[in-house]
Amino acid sequence: MCGAIEGGLSLDGVNVAKEAVVQGQVTRGGAPVGNAYVRLLDRTGEFTAEVPTNEHGQFRFFAGDGEWTLRTLAPKAQPIDKKVIAARGSVAEVAITL
Predict the structure, then answer these.
(1) Cα(22)–Cα(58) distance, rounded to whole angstroms?
(2) CATH, residue 40
(3) How many Å separate Cα 98 from the centre of its chain?
(4) 8 assigned to some structural domain
(5) What is the mean pLDDT of the chain?
(6) Is residue 5 assigned to a domain?
(7) pLDDT exceeding 90 applies to what percent of the chain?
(8) At the top level of its lineage, which domain of life is listed (predicted)?
(9) Which of 23, 32, 35, 80 could form a disulfide with 57 if both were Cys (CB 3.0 to 4.6 A apart)?
(10) 52 to each of 17, 34, 40, 87, 88, how far by Cα in Å?
(11) What's the pLDDT at 15?
(12) Nearest to 83 by CA among 97, 58, 66
């Protein structure tokens, strides 16, 4: 059974109407991967930001509108790239499986 919080990260206190939220969870074999790193790369592949996953494998970015790449780095795993579209007023939920 997955240890993630049901429904994902809480959006309490986040004004989604004014933000482009990109968030999700990193898992391996169905289990959350804590202490992995997720990088936010712009359309040209340039590094923009990086956050560690929490103990539930969850992460969150506040991004500008447009296409982004999430690059996940974790021990004993090849880097994983995943494209995502961020848009103000919405939450892009991303599941990343190692």
Answers:
(1) 11
(2) 2.60.40.10
(3) 13
(4) no
(5) 88
(6) no
(7) 80
(8) Bacteria
(9) 32
(10) 25, 8, 12, 23, 23
(11) 63
(12) 66
Any domain includes 87: yes
State the residue range of the domain holding 72: 16-97
- The residue with tokens 């090849």 is 78
SS (H, E, C) the chain: CCCCCCCCCCCCCCCHHHCEEEEEEEEECCEECCCCEEEEECCCCCEEEEEECCCCCEEEEEECCEEEEEEEECCCCCCEEEEEEECCCEEEEEEEEC
Q: What is the pLDDT of residues 5-49, one digit of tens each?
A: 445 676 666 666 788 999 999 999 999 999 999 999 999 999 999
The total number of structural domains in the chain stands at 1
- pLDDT reading at 1 higher than 50: no
Residues in the chain: 98
Q: How far is CA 84 from CA 12, 14, 55, 70, 73, in A?
A: 23, 20, 23, 7, 17
Asked whether 40 and 61 are in contact (CB, 8 A), the reply is yes
